[in-house]
Specification:
Blueprint (H helix, E strand, L loop, with lengths): L1 H6 L5 H19 L7 H27 L8 H18 L1 H8 L7 H5 L3 H8 L6 H19 L8 H18 L9 H22 L4 H4 L15 E2 L13 H15 L9 E6 L6 H9 L8 E5 L3 H15 L11 H10 L7 E5 L4 H4 L17 H4 L12 E6 L2 H8 L3 E3 L5 H11 L7 H14 L4 H13 L5 H9 L4 H8 L22 H10 L1 H12 L5 E2 H6 L8 H13 L3 E5 L6 E5 L1 H10 L2 H18 L8 H17 L5 H16 L4 H19 L4 H16 L3 H19 L4 H17 L3 H18 L5 H17 L3 H18 L5 H17 L3 H19 L4 H17 L3 H18 L5 H17 L3 H18 L5 H17 L3 H18 L5 H17 L3 H19 L4 H16 L3 H19 L4 H10 L1
Parallel strand pairs: 1-3, 2-5, 2-6, 3-4, 4-5
Antiparallel strand pairs: 7-9, 8-9
Helix pairs in contact: 2-3, 2-4, 2-9, 3-10, 4-8, 4-10, 8-9, 14-15, 19-21, 20-22, 25-27, 25-28, 25-29, 29-30, 29-31, 30-31, 31-32, 32-33, 33-34, 33-35, 34-35, 35-36, 36-37, 37-38, 37-39, 38-39, 39-40, 40-41, 41-42, 41-43, 42-43, 43-44, 43-45, 44-45, 45-46, 46-47, 47-48, 48-49, 49-50, 50-51
């Protein structure tokens, strides 16, 4: 208490004792222990009020020393009376007993025998004797008597002097009293009383006369007639979430106290900034109602100069400010000066909706700017000039513009966030209580809907109120409309329906979630044309992951100055329209727009304006986007959603939109394998180019060319052929035989012919022609020349018997691509894959094949994704390699089932790649054994589709026949059907591929096996197998797997024919070859070894 005594030095003894009494009460409550979870908060608030009282007593001491406050002054008696009231709050033992269940005073009976309550009191450390507590209770009778006196001259100094010994007794009691458990609600009431008394003390200490303050005994202590409370909205009892304003003030005061500073009693400003509808006004309302009847509160609408002036007039009338009704006077200055003066008290001023910087700081020519001595006006000089400063008062600003916030409140700016999900759900059910009846059915839909609304309170309230009034529309149905682009117009109508709200300004009372943002849009147009143009551009594209680099590339209004662009974008951020976001491209910086702001901007722009904005955005984006080459894929990953959103929003196409369709369509095709979407964009571009430029224009032909090769990848080979032949004919006629576009058409047409089957001679001629011209005109290592080399290798491979040439071409292509494009370029990976296939067909290099294929698959998975067609192709090829290695059928099955599932879902049931997967999965099932029924079902399905879509003699159809024949053979009893299928396949392959083609030889071998099983045809079997072995030895070599198979089969046939001399001469050779190719444990090796012995 030495500190307190020092503070009160020179104060008459009774006042000093009163101060000690009050501060001791604070101190002991602050150190009390309690299990109540709110107690830490209460203890903090007690410390705040204690610090206030310390500050006030310092001022009282100073006033007494300066003789500005005398003991015979009525204010001195009123200050003393207030201190008595504070002491009473801590010292009424009867009240403490009833509230907290501890006994402090005693009756006559308890004096004879210690009561149970006294024993509890002793256990709690209340060591005062019963005699002491009785005398202290008597002391407080005097305190209570004094506080019941009217606050006038009946309270004489002599009366106060008689109280002094009783107060000393109270202090002694505090030293032994420990409150056992503080009741949260009642403690909060106590804190509210103490705040009230401290506020009254401050009024008196600041020197306000009793008449001016308006002292009454209405609340039991000196106070004004209720402080002015000019707030246009009622208290919102349903406020949900925490008040960020209240939290800020609490943290601010706590920080000052922790630093040993006094409570800030000077001028303080704070701004709450956030998107329209985020709940700024409700937050402030929740805070200022805590000060009703305690501090003057004035609420001024600052959304426009007109509103500001109107509310200044209300304030002047309410406070009866001299001159407020004088039309010759400047009302803004009168109110400002009154608030800065002593008569206004310690006020809170709310400036709500202070959104427009130009209203606060208008741009005016320097020659007409008013000086301090000139006549000023709010409209001319701006609202900022009429905001009070001085040494007192608290100003709270709500604004959408962070620049306004910083300008008015410096660094004291709070960004108001959206609600937490659980708070959003609570708010929704409060405004749509009937939805709780079906909460189990709609909880997931509601969570998704609230997420779409991005937890914005105004949006939640509007949607909830609509659903409550329209109960036939479920939360799920509303969500469907929100998520569906097709329903966007209906959604705009729903969100444009007015919702009346008593907690919003009357002028905005029928405001909707969409129209509330129009205020910000209009202000942006006034303040920054460049920012407005950026916003219009962003209304046309996707709202998420908007790259900052893109906004710098598009040169809006031909502005290239980075500083000007940055300022315009920062303006949008300051208005809470844009939020910073990370993008996976460039410098990683970008933006996103709140979903409802994005929708509101589209609604705000009238039909004609939106069309203009879309067309302009289309031109800008088409020019900014580079072609989807591999090195630009990272850029396209970010830009594609914006291109697709813009194209979806367009009502009418233009040349720019067709160009954008071509660029986006190519990326969908080449990088993502999304052929159906790509085709739609290409066809959209083709139609428009044809209308604008004619059927044979280069742009129209390029669109047709793109449709053709996408048809081929989508498995629509006949359509691809027809279109490609047409384009090729026109280009050859109009551009010439060796024009690059003509060569591209020739190249793609050759691939289509090859995939259609049966035209390998034409394919070879076309590809050799393209290769020769490209090598001569572009050079050996040009990408197009390498592509031709690669495709020519594929054709040679299909013809059979040219594996050496194929290998040389593919190794050359791979070497150049690795060196010029890099290890992970898609073309390099394609070359690796093709070379692996060549090694596999040569036999004996399965380890190299596996390494290449695993490398390709790893890179494709990482760069293209798990479901890209090229990734699926790699998985399929690797499965075939595992199958040929033997012993890995489980891995093979898993890979092939995965590929088939994705292919069915992404490409369709009848796509060539899907059928190829079915075909190979059937072979795998067959090798596992016991699944012949499944195998037959798959193979018959594949054969039916291939016959219908590719024709009877297509290579893939023949492969299906071949596999189905093997399945029938394994089922037994169907040798006639097997023979017919195999003879058909052999006849077609011999005619179309040639006698020595690898697939023809496979058909000969299988037919030989069938003849052998029928019996009596061993001579035919011998002739077929001898032919197969001779050709394979000559074309594949002695070490090839297929050669080993042919030798094994031929040895067995010779043995069956009892041609033992010939059989014996081959057996040892067959055993060695089989051991070298398959290993010593393989069945072929062991069988030939046994036969040889």
């Amino acid at each position: 208490m030495a500190e307190v005594a020092g503070l009160a030095l020179g104060v008459p003894g009774v006042l000093d004792t009163l101060i000690k009494t009050c501060l001791e009460g604070y101190r002991f409550i602050s150190t009390a222990r309690s299990a109540d979870e709110d107690f830490e908060n209460h203890r903090y608030q007690f410390k705040v009020e204690q610090q206030k009282l310390k500050d006030l007593t310092t001022t009282v001491t100073s006033r007494i020393r300066e003789s500005t406050l005398k003991t015979d002054d009525e204010r001195f008696l009123l200050i003393s009376s207030t201190l008595i009231r504070i002491a009473q709050q801590f010292s009424d033992f009867k009240r403490l007993e009833s509230l907290y269940g501890v006994q402090i005073s005693s009756s006559d009976k308890s004096a004879e025998k210690p009561s149970k309550r006294f024993r509890i009191r002793k256990l709690l450390g209340l060591e005062a004797s019963q005699k002491d507590t009785k005398s202290e209770s008597d002391a407080f009778k005097t305190v209570l008597t004094l506080t019941d006196l009217h606050l006038d001259k009946n309270l004489e100094m002599a009366t106060l002097q008689t109280l002094k010994p009783h107060l000393n007794s109270v202090i002694n009691t505090y030293s032994r009293l420990k409150w056992a458990c503080l009741d949260s609600e009642k403690t909060q009431n106590l804190i509210s009383k103490l705040k009230e008394y401290n506020s009254n003390m401050k009024e008196l200490v600041d020197g306000h006369s009793v008449d001016k303050v308006g002292i009454t005994t209405v609340v039991g202590v000196i106070t004004k007639d209720k402080p002015h409370f000019m707030v246009p909205f009622p208290r919102n009892e349903d406020f949900i979430g925490k008040s960020h304003i209240a939290s800020w003030f609490k943290a601010y005061l706590k920080q000052r106290i922790a630093a040993g500073k006094s409570e800030h009693t000077g001028h303080l400003r704070l701004a709450l900034c956030g998107l329209g509808g985020v709940g700024k006004t409700q937050d402030v309302l929740n805070f200022i109602y805590e000060y009703e009847n305690q501090r003057p509160v004035f609420w001024i609408h600052a959304g426009s100069v007109t509103q500001f002036e109107a509310d200044c007039q209300k304030l002047g009338s309410l406070a009866k400010i001299p001159g407020h009704d004088d039309t010759e006077q400047n009302l803004g200055l009168i109110v400002k000066q009154w608030l800065e003066g002593p008569q206004s008290g310690d006020w809170i001023l709310v400036l709500d909706n202070a959104d427009n910087m130009l209203d606060f700081h208008p741009i005016a020519p320097k020659s007409t700017a008013s000086k301090e001595s000139d006549t000023v006006s709010i409209a001319h000089d701006g609202i900022a000039k009429f905001i009070p400063r001085g040494s007192k008062g608290t100003i709270i600003v709500t604004t959408r513009d962070r620049e306004v916030a910083r300008n008015l409140a410096n660094q004291n700016v709070i960004i108001k966030p959206e609600l937490h999900p659980e708070q959003a759900i609570k708010l929704f059910y409060h405004h749509c209580p009937n939805a709780e009846d079906t909460a189990d059915d709609t909880s997931t839909a509601l969570q998704r809907l609230l997420k779409e609304l991005q937890y914005l309170p105004l949006a939640i309230v509007q949607v909830a109120a609509y659903l409550d009034l329209n109960r036939s529309i479920s939360t799920s149905k509303y969500l469907e409309m929100f998520e569906s682009k097709k329903e966007s117009q209906k959604l705009k109508r729903l969100l444009s329906k007015p919702h009346h709200n008593i907690w919003r300004d009357n002028s905005e009372n029928a405001e909707t979630i969409l129209t509330t943002f129009s205020i910000s849009f209009r202000q942006l147009q006034e303040q920054s044309k460049l920012a407005d143009s950026f916003l219009r551009f962003m209304a046309c594209i996707d709202r998420k992951a908007i790259p900052r680099d893109l906004l710098f590339q598009i040169h809006m209004h031909d502005v290239e100055d980075e500083l000007l662009i940055s300022e315009a974008l920062d303006k949008l951020v300051n208005f809470s329209i844009l939020q910073h976001a990370k993008v996976d491209f460039g410098r990683g910086k970008g933006y996103e727009i709140h979903s409802l702001v994005h929708l509101a901007m589209q609604t705000y722009l009238e039909s004609g304006e939106m069309d203009t904005a879309l067309n302009k955005a289309c031109t800008v984006l088409a020019n900014a986007l580079r072609d989807s080459e591999y090195e630009n894929w990272a850029e396209w990953r970010v830009y594609l959603p914006h291109a697709m959103a813009l194209l979806a929003n367009l009502k009418e196409d233009s040349e720019a939109s067709a160009d954008l369709c071509m660029k986006a369509g190519y990326h969908l095709y080449v990088a993502l394998g999304r052929y159906s979407e790509s085709l739609k964009l290409y066809e959209r571009a083709r139609k428009l180019y044809a209308v604008l430029f004619g059927e044979e224009n280069t742009k129209t032909l390029e669109a047709m060319h793109s449709i053709g090769y996408t048809f081929r990848h989508a498995g629509r080979l006949k359509e691809a052929q027809e279109l490609q032949e047409k384009v090729f004919e026109v280009r050859r006629r109009t551009l010439g035989e060796e024009h690059p576009d003509t060569l591209r058409s020739m190249h793609h047409l050759a691939i289509t012919y090859r995939e259609l089957g049966g035209r390998l001679k034409e394919v070879q001629e076309l590809e050799e022609k393209v290769f020769e011209v490209r090598r001569r005109t572009l050079g050996e290592e040009h990408p197009d020349t390498l592509t031709s080399m690669n495709n020519l290798a594929i054709t040679y491979e299909k013809q059979g018997g040219r594996l050496k040439e194929v290998q040389e071409l593919r190794e050359k292509v791979l070497e150049v691509r690795r060196r010029t494009l890099g290890e992970e370029h898609p073309d390099t990976l394609r070359s690796m894959n093709n070379l692996a296939i060549t090694y596999e067909e040569q036999g004996g290099r399965l380890k190299e094949v596996q390494e290449l294929q695993e490398k390709v698959l790893e890179v494709r998975r990482r760069t293209l994704g798990e479901e890209h067609p090229d990734t699926l192709s790699s998985m399929h090829n690797l499965a075939i390699t595992y199958e040929k290695q033997g012993g890995r059928l489980k891995e093979v099955q898993e890979l092939e089932e995965k590929v088939l599932e994705v292919s069915r879902r992404t490409l369709g049931e009848e796509h060539p790649d899907t059928l190829r997967c079915m075909h190979h999965l059937a072979i795998t099932y067959e090798k596992q054994g016991g699944r012949l029924k499944e195998v037959q079902g798959l193979e018959e399905k594949v054969l039916e589709v291939r016959r219908r879509t590719l024709g009877e003699e297509h290579p893939d159809t023949l492969r299906s026949m071949h596999s189905l024949a093997i399945t029938y053979e394994k089922q037994g009893g169907r040798l006639k059907e097997v023979q017919e299928l195999q003879e058909k396949v052999l006849e077609v392959r011999s005619r179309t591929l040639g006698e020595e083609h690898p697939e023809t030889l496979t058909s000969m071998n299988n037919l030989a096996i069938t003849y052998g099983k029928q019996g009596g045809r061993l001579k035919e079997v011998q002739e077929l197998q001898e032919k197969v072995l001779e050709v394979r030895r000559r074309t594949l070599g002695e070490k090839h797997q297929d050669t080993a198979d042919a030798m094994y089969n031929f040895v067995l046939t010779l043995y069956d024919l009892e041609l033992l001399d010939e059989a014996i001469s081959l057996m040892e050779e067959a055993a060695c070859l089989s051991a070298r190719v398959y290993g010593g444990d393989h069945s072929y090796t062991k069988t030939t070894e046994v036969l040889a012995k």
